[in-house]
Amino acid sequence: MRERLTIVKVGSKVLEDKTALKRFITDFSCIGGSKMLVHGGALSRMVADKMGISLKVVDGNSVIDSRMLDVLTMVNGGLVNRKFVSLLQWHKVNAAGLTGADMNLVTCVKRDPKGKDCTGTVKTVNVKAVADMLQNGVTPVLASLAHDGRGNLLNVNADDLASEVARAMSLRYEVTLIYCFELKGVLMNTRDPDSVIASLRRTQYKSMRDMGIIGDEMVPKLENAFYATSHGVKEVVITDPAHVNDGNSGTHIRD
Fold first, then answer.
1. Which of 69, 91, 116, 191 sits CB 3.0–4.6 Å from 29 for a disulfide?
2. CB–CB of 200/213 below 8 Å?
3. Domain residue ranges in the chain
4. Percent with pLDDT over 70 in the chain
């Protein structure tokens, strides 16, 4: 029987709410077995605004230019990552703060090879390096930054990164992937925060999307979830940071 691994993706916005942050760190620390944290860098936009650096958006997609990448590296790979690590150490979790460039953990290719967008898509995940850390009692805390193998850092969408890491690690582990965001799960009614859909399969998702029950803002997260379950991940759960260790909460995604 394969060892269990829980991978949790959380946004950096949780750092802004002390109560939610305390609950999340406590509950994450109590997750049994091997675990890993993947986080985004939403706080980077606030820092960029203060520095007079605007995030460019083209056709609905954020374009990370070189100046914005520098901010993401400083904030996401530095400040945010170290805050999570220090809080986990306080809770007796032996955490290590990392980007995809560390130990060659994640390589990626530039999304727009000829353009100025410094965003990448995941190419490889160093399963052995992650497994070695886990087997030595280390909990990796991975910022959503990777490298292209040619000396360049690239931004990676955190949901995409978590899905790709979960897929790769499922070759060795029985993986559960948990997406934490501001809602309690996928909602049947967006105006009712408690109308959580407890379980969702791909066929149901497609029908509900066609009916307009599931809005466009949830589509990327669900596409990542179903990608993971169709590539070896046992289960994906979408929930809020307050219920990361509550197996009965959130929306449970099964292929």
1. 91
2. no
3. 4-254
4. 98
